[in-house]
Amino acid sequence: MTTRASLASAKIGQVRDEFLHSDTGRNLSAEDASRLRKFVTWCGISTSVEAVQPFKIEEFLAAQMNTSAPPRNYVPVLKAFFGFAAQQGALATDPMRVVRLPRGAGGAAKKTPANTAVRARPHAAVRDRDEVVYVSKPQFEQMQLELERLRGEERHKVSQMLHDAIKDGDLSENAAYDDAKMRQGMLEARIRELEAKLRNIELIEDQDRSSGAVSVGSKVRLIELETGDPIDYQVVGPEETNPRAGKISHLSPVGRAIMGKNAGDEVDVATPAGAMRYRVDTVE
Fold first, then answer.
1. Last residue of a domain, one of 146, 181, 204
2. Which residues pair with 270 in a beta bridge?
3. CA separation for the pair 256, 235 (Å, rounded)
């Protein structure tokens, strides 16, 4: 069993297994056991159970709004699970004490009429996550360090803030609790952003530039055709964009226009000041 000595390290997957083998867990319906497994998988089985704060549970419940099992169906099993975790010493505070159902989640899920077309959700966010993220090796290492710090030190700080705020009692007018939840939301959003980017990283140093065409990592000199002025750029990923230092993203208007071009090619770029025409002078 999980002990109080393992408070900070108990994994939610481990506590789930212990719960399912407990007297309460063995009496769960198959549907409730399945709902608990779905929740734990969504959180990540290796996540510390102490890190699963009210904000994260509310986010999961909100994601069930348009499913066959509405959020209210998950509440009993989650209350039982987190109550068990608290009893076993895997939690300092039971997060379900302050979890609120998402607005409009009190009733059963609405059925879609057979003759009603179901509107597909936009896929833009999925496409963004799946795009390759080009970074230099130092930037990659910096992102890894940031993610490690956020998952550890910063999550612990926010968890302590929530714990202290909840001890104050009434949460309806608790500014410290509201501030802690806001900080937690921003923290978890940044963690998810970094995790998504790191899954799709390609190092700039590894790019093949043998063709001589402009690619991520290339240093390019452009000639503005109307004035004859030269402009030097290095094409980088969005994470390292710094126009003052001459580093432009491959997703910027100029970056998109020159990607794949060779020395001597001319390109048109739409800018706020109007269309500009450039010639690619050199590519390194």
1. 204
2. 275
3. 10
By the 8 A CB rule, do 258 and 235 touch?
yes
Q: What are phi and psi of 159, to 5 degrees?
A: -60, -40
Q: Which of 159, 188, 204 is the last residue of a domain?
A: 204
Measured CA to CA, the distance from residue 159 to residue 153 in angstroms comes to 10
Percent of the chain with pLDDT over 70: 84
Per-residue tokens: 52: 């699963």
| 98-151 per-position pLDDT tens digit | 888 877 655 433 443 433 333 333 333 333 434 688 888 898 999 999 999 998
Amino acid at 19: F
Q: Answer yes or no: are the C-beta atoms of 218 and 227 closer than 8 Å.
A: no
State the Cα–Cα distance between residues 58 and 53, nearest whole angstrom.
9
Please report whether residue 191 resides in a domain: yes
The answer to whether 258 touches 236, Cβ cutoff 8 Å, is no
Question: Domain limits at 220?
Answer: 207-283
Give how far Cα 49 sits from Cα of 2, 7, 40, 233, Å.
Answer: 11, 9, 10, 47
pLDDT tens column, 27-47: 889 889 889 998 988 888 888
Other C-beta atoms lying within 10 Å of the C-beta of residue 17: 14
